[in-house]
Automatic annotation (TrEMBL):
Name of the molecule in the record: SdpA family antimicrobial peptide system protein
UniProt organism field: Streptomyces luteireticuli
Bilayer-spanning residue ranges: 23-45
Keyword entries, A-Z: Membrane, Transmembrane, Transmembrane helix
UniProt xrefs under NCBIfam families: export_SdpA
Amino acid sequence: MASTSTDNRPRPGESPRGSVRQLALFSVACLALFGYLATALFYTLPTNALSSRHSKGARTVLNTVTPENWAFFTRNPQNGQIGVYASGRDGAVRNLLVTPQGDPSNLFGISRTQRAQGPELGYLNAAAASRWVPCAGFLEPCIKEATARPAQQVTNSSPVPTVCGDAFLTQEKTVPWSFRNQVPYTRRVVQIAHLDVRCK
């Protein structure tokens, strides 16, 4: 008895209709996605001949739905920062932060000591909560004033201690970008705490 079934397999040299349809659908989806991202990126650029930063409409919508700016990836640079310093017998101030990460002393990022220092400073910051004293803004005078006050004893329980002995913890504010040429410093000290850090 002869078979009535038909062979739907494509003949040699013919492209299957299903794969062409899938390829077309994939191409349209990629064009739509990359077109949307390119449009969102264009509207986050500074004011130009085609779009003003103060214009409404597409710019407002795209900046709300697809924010393409540094604030999406990093913390606000205007927020306060913690600093830690030591004062030598000669009065010279030494920064105890082990950053930047790409420094040769950190093996250009291979060493993870600077990563461990964040939680350590967070603990010292919490321990110094009752010892913060307002400061004038410049580091050296602030440390000189804080030296005259007794240091609070704190135990550093970090497994990789980087701050031991007589230290000064500071809360600092970065100078806004618009004022960078009007002052001779990049950060100003807001508060300072004098600590006697005991390492295990």
